[in-house]
Each structure stands twice: as structure tokens, then as C-alpha cells.
Amino acid sequence: MDRFPHAANVDFHSPLDLSKAAAAVLDDDGRISGWGSSAQRLLGHAPEDVLGQSAARLLAADPGQRLSALCKAPRPRSTVLDLSCRDGRTLRAAVTFSPLAHRGVAATVVVAAELEALRSWEAQLAMMQGLATESSVGLTIFDTDMRVVWGNVSTDLELAGVAQYIGRPAADLFPEGEFISRHHPPDEDQIMEHVLTTGEPIMGMHYRGRAPADPVREHVWSCSYHRLVDARGEPLGLFEESLDITDRYRAQERLSLLVRAGKRIGASLDVRRTAAELADVAVPQLADEVLVDLPPAVIEGRHPPTGSAPGHSLLRMHGRTPEEFRTSPVSYPPSSPQALSLATSRPVVDAVPPEGAPGQAGPAASHSCLFVPLLTRDAILGLATFRRSSNPDPFGPEEQTLAVELAERAAVGIDNARRYTSQHAAALVLQRSLLPQHLPEQSAVDVAYRYLPADSRVGVGGDWFDVIPLSGARVGLTVGDVVGHGVHAAATMGRLRATVRTLALLDLDPAELLTRLDDLVAQDSESQADDGPIDEALGVTCLYAIYDPVSGRCVWASAGHPPPIVADANGSVALSALAPGPPLGLGGLPYENVDLNLSSSSVVAFFTDGVVEDRRTDIDSGIDRLAQVLTWQRCPLEELCDRALSALPPGPQADDATLMLVRTRRLDADQVADLELPPDPTMVAHARTVTERQLATWDLSDLSFTAALVVSELVTNGIRYASGPVMLRLIRDRCLLCEVSDNAHTAPHLRRARRDDEGGRGLFLVAQMSQRWGTRYTASGKTIWAELALP
Q: Which of 307, 339, 479, 539 is deepest in the core (most CB within 10 A)?
């Protein structure tokens, strides 16, 4: 389909042209002596009706004298007359009278055209003249060989004289220019060839280059190409329309740059990466290089220093990736433009940046530098340097405004990253202070663990684990999971972990410990119900176990937590069939103890549900996966931990994941000595004798006096207050353990004896001679124990 269906009606001939206008001939008396067919078409009068008649009869009015004067004028004259048509209409026409003298016969040729048509033609002609002489749109005509034929005044101004390019190819006009629109061939010759061959115009191509009349400043034009054809439809060449859209294009570029900056700058919450994001956004559209200088305090997450000299003790950011990140010291003299920008908190343009300044780096061929302070909340965070080397254009007012806005966005991002770094460091300190840093040395178990918080940005979560040394060489093992992630969950976790450790040191059995912990959580939830949101501890899960290396007995209880998985020394894996009790804070059901007899070198896995459950797999599949890993229980525990976590599905975690692997040990029989004593006071001496003899066997004779005194006091108390036999146990471990068990449930109390008291000093002596002592309750009574340091 023709793109311009009415193009055939466009006619640039004048309505007064003899090929179109109405023509007649008047004699010397003003009578019509010639009447053309064009005159008949215009007025409707046939020749026989007007020939020989006075021309004044065709006038709507009667300006006879005027008509006579026009006919007798010595030179052509033009006027506007109202003519009468045959159908009674009055036609306002533009009429030209041209005197004609031939062989002495006086005559006048009259040419007439409708006045409205003439005015329309004159407007078109004025438009063409305006395009050629006054329009800001560049018009250039090329022949079929794509050589310059003509250019209007706008083209002439851009080329500093179009005459010198007549007959030259289009490529000579802007030799270093390029098309930046990519929806058509980028080569101008290919574009022109396409338009000449197909007749299809190409419009709206953006072209970037430097005009010969302004070789310093880079311009952008919007160019369109159209084919020119003659009356027969044969190509004559083509013409190019070009409009300088530099300002509009740069405004659009600045807007797109700001949109891109809003999406990218500050998204990482990392100080160094934010500095790199500023450079990524601004290069190469605004500058050829962007440098960011920050104080060390900002990089470390601290508040920027105040009161120091501007430009001193800054670090320049380098690198775009974490692997490339590095810093180099930089400082600026007080008289430098950088120091001026920092001191005044305003951007400063320096056309010739000083070279050789301390810390100054960059090419010596820089054309222009723009220094912009990084400001936020009335604090100066650093300095951004926008540098141009290949682009000779100086930074204009609009570009300075753009750089300031980019710097403001970067400053906000850097300040947010600084605050995040500070909070992150505080959260990590909190987490490290709440979780065990070094597991205590003890003989009962070997331990390895892994902790993976779901909130990888903050690095803290609500899971916890602990290994708690207990009396009698036993060890308490606990793992828990607080609902939620982040700092609040970590704080709740720390409070619960401390509570579990406190209750564990009371030597409570697992079920009793969880019952008391549940009461505490419920009380906290009730006290906070009226003051604000419910504590995150509500619904927390916890598992607590006690392992005795003397008997190999392990007792555990669970408050909504997955039970441990046990792999014995042969590699067979056992899962507990007992359902856990309710989570802490819910209450309603009792907690039950589970007894296990573990052989030496058994591996017990304590874990949170983040290890065995995610969005894609259920908890049963995860437990089976972990159990399969435990079949390799002969491997080192660290390797088993890595195997277990490497089996997790890839991708971000939905929950915190904590894994603690425990390999059990058993104390040898020769490390434990038991002695049952009847409730007879004379047995105290026998107990001392047995103790001294056993210590000599263990090569601990240096402890004989102290140990005999401690045993004497503990056995005396047991015999005095118990109603049945007393059991003495000596354990040689990392220290010497002395335990005396009886059937009484009354706990002894340390008291200060008065000078005239005959008793009450036994436990005081025990406390002074031992490094620790205490009491634990059993199902049949109590056990008083004391630990003596080995020499």
C-alpha cells in the first residue's frame, strides 16, 4: 500500500502558470478577442458568449476605469478582482495583465486564477523557502551514487559550508560519527542503499558525532531518509532530514541513568560494593572513571570522624568484585580542589587536575574532573571523583547536578551499608557470645558441630547447642530451635541457652529440666502478653540429654524437638520411636525420659529441623538422608559434619540449620573404684584406708591426705543422716572425683561454724580443698561429690 495515497495531488506549479491558469486576450478597447478553454473551466462562459464583448461585463462590480487603466499599463500589473461566473457565482480571483504589442496591434494578455488557490501555493512556497533558509532541521539531498547534491542553511551551518562537500560521498560529512540506534544497519551507506532500492523510508535513527562547525562538542541527531523520484517514478536520489536532539537525548540519558542508579546503587548493603556500583552506573555515560575515597571508619562500619582536616586519612576503593577489593591511602593538600569540595560540601570542577599529589592516581591526559562530596545526615562520608579523559567536553551544569544526585544516592547507600556493617558486627558479637566458643575438654564424648543461619546477611539465627560438663564425669548435651531468625531470635536463644545451662548444673534429669524450662517460658509469655508482641520463645523446641561415660547410659527428653539419631560402633543406625513432648511454652503434656545404653565409639547426631527439612523435601526424607550419612560413623566427626551438610539441597535455606555430632567414650574399669559401706561410723576409717590404697594404685599418692580428708567428711555426713548403706565412688579422670551416695533426700548446706561449735566444719573443709563440689539427686536419694585437681 502506498504510504502517501494523496501524494499525486501535490502540485508545486503556480496557479498563475499558463499551463493551469485561465487565459484571455483583450484588444485595445478592452473587448475580449481571445478566450481559452482554461478560462471557460474557471468561469463557465463559452467562447461564443464572450468574444467581442467588453471584459467589463465579467466583473461583479463596475470598475471600468480601473480595468481600462490595467489594460493600458506599460508593464505587467496584478490585482484582485471579483469575476462573475456563468452560474451566478462571484469568484474572487488573482488577475495579471500583461501588455502585448505585435505588428502594431495593441493587445493585453490576461491570466487569472482563483485567489484562494494562489494563496495556498504561496504558503507552500514560503514553507519550502523556510525549510531551505530558516529551519533548524537539516536537509541534505544525495544523488543515486549517494553523493552530496544540495543542503539547506541548517546543513550549511553544521558543515561550516556545504559547498565544499558537493559531489563528495556521505561518509565524508562526519567521518568519526556512528549510529547509536541498533534497529537498522549501523552503516550509513547500507541505510541509503536500502532506501534507494526499496523506497521504504527509514526514520528516527540516532546518530552521534562531531559537526565540522563544532568539533569539540559531541552532538546527537535524529536522522530520517526518504527516496526522491521524478515524474516517471524513477529514482533521482534521496534526501536526509537531521534534527539536533543533543539536549533532549542527554536529558533522557540522565533520566535513564537516575532510574538505573535507583535500582543498583545501595542494593548490596556493602560499603565497598556500593562504591563500585556508583562507578558502574556513571561509567561511561557520565564519566570515563569514577573514584571513591572514604575514611577507614566508614569502611569498618563506624561513624565518620568529625573535626579532622578535610581530605586527610582517606582510603580509595579499588575493584568491582569481592576478590578484587583493595584500598590505597590518599590525602589531598589543603589548597587542592578536592579539599575545597570537602570543606565547602559543594561540587568543584577542575579542568586541569593536579598531578603528582599524594595518593593521586590516574591518567595525566584528563580533560576535566568533578569532585563531589558524599553527604548524608549532615555528615561527610567521603569524596567521589568523576574524571573524563577520552571525552573532552567539560562537565556542564546539568551534568554537575546529575553527579550530585548520584553522589547523594551513593552516600545514602554507603551510610546504610555502614550502619548495616555496624549492626552486623554487633549481631555477630552477640551470636558468638551466646554460642559456645570452645567446647569444654572432657572425657565423655568427642564433639563436632556446624551452624548455618538461614539469614546469611545477618549471620545469626535462633538455633543453639551446648555441651555442659556435669558431676561424675557426665556431660549434658542440648540443642534447641527458636521460632524466627535474626537478632531477636538470637537474643531469645541466648536467654534460653543460659537458662538450660543453669538448670543443668542443678543436676536435674532431662524431663525435669524441660518441665521447669517450660514453666519459665510460659510465665514470660504471660507477663509480656499485655505489654507487646508475644516473645519468640513461645513454641521453641529443645532437646536435652545426659551421658554417663561410666555406665554408658544416655538419658534424653525432647520438647517438640526431633530425637537424636544413634549409630553404634558397627555402623547400624537406630531412630527413636518415642514421640517428642510439646514445644516449650505450650504445656499440657508431660515430658518423658528415654534411656539408651551406648557402646563406646557410638555416634549420636543432635540436629535442628533445618538440617532435615526444607521446602522441597519432607522431614522423613531428610532424616533418612542424615541416617545414611551416619553409616560412615568410623569417619572423623568433622568429615561426617561436612558430609551431612553437603547432602543438603542447593539454594537458600528456609530455616537455621544446626548439627552436633557426638562420639561417646567409656571410662575403663580401672579408672573407677566403688565401695559400699554399711551405716556404721567405724566405716569412716575404712573408707580413708581404701581411698589411700586406691590413690597409690593410680600413682596419686600426693593427693592421699586431701582426698582422705574429703572422703572422711562426705562419708561421715552420709552415715550420720542416711538410714541405709553408703556408696563411695572414686573416679580418676581429668581430675579426681569423689562421690558419696546415700538414700537421704536432704541436701547438706555449707555454713559458718561458731568458735564453740563441735561440728559444722566438714563441708567447709571440703569446699576449701576441692575445686568444685555439689549435690545431685537420684531416684534413690542423693549424691554428694567433690572434684580434686590432679597434681
A: 479
Number of H-type helices and E-type strands within the chain: 19, 32
Mapped onto helix, strand or coil, the DSSP state of residue 154 is helix
Calpha distance 415→359 (Å, rounded): 24
Query: Looking at this protein, which amino acid is placed at residue 211?
Result: A
Give the whole-angstrom CA distance, residue 300 versus residue 421: 7
Q: What is the 3-state secondary structure (H, E, C) of 216-260?
A: EEEEEEEEEEEEEECCCCCEEEEEEEEEECHHHHHHHHHHHHHHH
Between strands 782-789 and 772-777, the pairing is antiparallel
**Average of per-residue pLDDT across 469-498:** 84
**Integer angstrom CA distances of residue 789 from 337, 692, 786:** 70, 16, 10
Within its chain, how far is the Cα of 609 from the centroid? 30
CA distance 83 to 43: 8
* Stronger pLDDT, 354 or 785, i.e. the higher one: 785
Distance from C-alpha of 138 to C-alpha of 160, rounded to nearest angstrom: 13
What's the confidence (pLDDT) of residue 653?
A: 64
The predicted-structure confidence for 582-633, as pLDDT tens digits, reads as follows 888 877 678 999 998 998 889 999 998 888 877 667 778 888 888 888 888 8
SS3 369: strand
SS3 494: helix
Residue 362, pLDDT above cutoff 50: no
Residue 671 one-letter amino acid: Q
**Residue 176: CA count within 13 A, CB half-sphere:** 9
Query: pLDDT for 218-248, tens place per residue?
Result: 899 999 999 999 878 889 999 999 999 988 8
Alpha-carbon distances, residue 354 vs 368, 370, 629 (angstroms): 11, 13, 65
Name the residue among 609, 620, 621, 623 with its Cα closest to residue 653. Answer: 609
Distances (CA, A) of 112 to 83, 97, 257, 452: 10, 9, 62, 98
Cell of 643: 558430609
CA 422 remoteness from chain centre: 19
Residue 287 CB partners (closer than 8 Å, separation 6+): 370, 386, 387, 388, 391, 403
Buried b (16+ CB within 10 A) or exposed e, 142-181: bbeebbbbbbbbbbbbbbeebeebeeeebeebbeebebee
| pTM higher than the cut 0.85 | no
Instruction: Return all residues near 110 (Cβ < 8 A) that are at least 6 apart.
Output: 23, 24, 25, 26, 55, 95, 96, 97, 98
Cell 537455621 belongs to which residue? 656
Q: Using CA atoms, how far apart are residues 651 and 657, in angstroms rounded to an integer?
A: 13
pLDDT of residue 664: 92
According to DSSP, the residues that pair with 99 across neighbouring strands are 108
